[in-house]
Amino acid sequence: MKSLRWIVPLALGATALGVPAAHAAPRKECPRLDSGLSWYGDNRAKLQQFLCAGHRGRVALFDWDNTVVKNDVGDATTYWLLRNDKVLQPARQDWRTTSRFLTGEAAAALKAACGTSVRPGRPLPTSTDTACADEILSVYGSAKTTGGAAAFAGWNHRRTEPSYAWAAQLLAGHTPGEVRRFAAAARAENLKAPVDAVQTVGSHQVTGWVRYYDQQRDLIRKLRRAGLDVWIVSASAQPVVQVWARGAGVRPDHVIGIENTRRAGRLTARLTGCGGDPDAITYIDGKRCAVNRRVLGVPERRAYEQAPAWRRQAFAAGDSDTDVTFVSDATDLRLVLNRNKAELMCRGYFNADGKWLVNPMFLQPKGRKSTRYPCSTTAYTAPDGTPGPVRENGRIVPDQADTVFSP
């Protein structure tokens, strides 16, 4: 990012007089949310109030998968790669070169399943080699080998999710343009497929459809009309989300996702990292780091710290514990789609400052969770993976009932 300093630049939250935009006077006119699109309870009214509150020049952030769209575009693209022979044999035919967190058991299982007859850098025949496709799908989808061994070990659980990272790392050897074409082909298939469609990958039936949420596309459009700077921050591969984000009116240069380094114009299996951590991706605290660096201009050495309130995003939306840190950082309004993800729902329902909105998913919403979220005991995941209590301002959050759902 060019010429960003740890002072208030005009484009990132200040008026022409140097007054933070959060304190600007409300405009007399503001864009109206589409009255024909359904929201839960009084959420539309609260979102409308936010749109009319004079946040011009402030930042609004959205997660992507299951927040702006139903289902996962990273999944959709990975399935397309496997069905179309686009995963390349790794360097030295050694699967450990794809991820430093891959276990020896997983590397051995992948090598046994996918073989050594294909030269490094050449396509693996996963459209016809069921064993190879199944092993890759198992490592990606369940973080286990088909034999049940753990596929990854040794990562920081609040900065990365190695299976998410691996989906991006499997793109190694392709150019960004090629990846965007793959994503566009997967997008076309998944939008055309009927709701609840499945597709065959290896010997498995997997999800075969994706839909944009009309409510979120409308909200993004109205936020932009109200003068907010709208960004996507996703734990899917950046070129993939860039293709999809255009359909929601978000430019590619306003999409942050998992980003591979490049060599001679092609993606490598190494990632760009964040805040001095080469393994960090856009995941939990890694999302804060990416937002701080890419959007807010926070120095690298401070990128994991919460930025001052006058600097931070005014609005954020997410659906998963993946999103909990950057959504919590929003100063004025936080929208949560209820997918029963424990830490995020604990914070959303506890609603310590009255700025959280919880909404059921707009398509195929989940029913009510039958038990309380274990906020006081195990809903928080520590960097080493240990479960613990969720805390707000030093207080342990009490267990929360699931109250926002569709019957």
TrEMBL record:
Keyword line: Amino-acid biosynthesis, Hydrolase, Magnesium, Metal-binding, Serine biosynthesis, Signal
Lineage: superkingdom: Bacteria
Cofactors (names): Mg(2+)
GO molecular function, one term: L-phosphoserine phosphatase activity
Pathway the protein contributes to: Amino-acid biosynthesis; L-serine biosynthesis; L-serine from 3-phospho-D-glycerate: step 3/3
Lineage: Bacteria, Bacillati, Actinomycetota, Actinomycetes, Streptosporangiales
Disordered: annotated span: 379-407
Record-listed E.C. numbers: 3.1.3.3
Endpoints of the signal sequence: 1-24
Organism: Actinomadura macrotermitis
InterPro entries: HAD-like_SerB, HAD-like_sf, HAD_sf
Pfam families in the record: HAD
Similarity comment text for this entry: Belongs to the HAD-like hydrolase superfamily. SerB family.
Entry keyword DNA damage: no
One GO cellular component, as annotated: cytoplasm
One Gene Ontology biological process: L-serine biosynthetic process
Catalytic activity reported: O-phospho-L-serine + H2O = L-serine + phosphate; O-phospho-D-serine + H2O = D-serine + phosphate
Protein's UniProt name: phosphoserine phosphatase
